[in-house]
Known about the structure:
By secondary structure, the protein is α/β, with parallel strands linked by helices. The protein contains four helices and six strands, in the order βαββαβαββα. The chain has one domain (3-147): Roll (CBS-domain). Helices cover 40% and strands 18% of the residues. The strands form two sheets. It has a three-stranded mixed β-sheet. A three-stranded mixed β-sheet has the order 4-5-6. The longest helix has 29 residues, at 119-147.
Amino acid sequence: MLVKEVCTPEVICCAAQTNALNAARLMRHHHVGAVVVVDNEDEERSPIGIVTDRDLAVKVIAGGLDPATIVVTALMQNPVVIVQESEDCAQVIERMSMHGVRRVPVVDGQGMVVGIVTLDDLLRMIVTHANALLNVMEKSAKAERHALR
């Protein structure tokens, strides 16, 4: 399955000069755990980093930093791990595992953000496929029992 089939197309982005307080407000307002930092927030959105709610808690709050003055570029994971929308989910899982990340921006052929794929998205896909396989097993067993009557 391709990543474009499981990713979330509504990506919350912010500019590189956004402060941590406003990034946190964006997360709260949109009920998300991360914002993708882009080079141009209004037009072509090429990802340059990602800031998570954990980054805000660990680096800003626990670090005693002022969220109104620290900018997201000081907090973001860089270089950002990205995936192409045309990649297979198995490749995405491998890349996320290799880099130890739970969220990855999805880009199109021009490198512009078109979605975000999360650990939750991929787990949901895997569980759906596992349930389909269980249904196959159950139907096969039922058909076999019916045939042996």
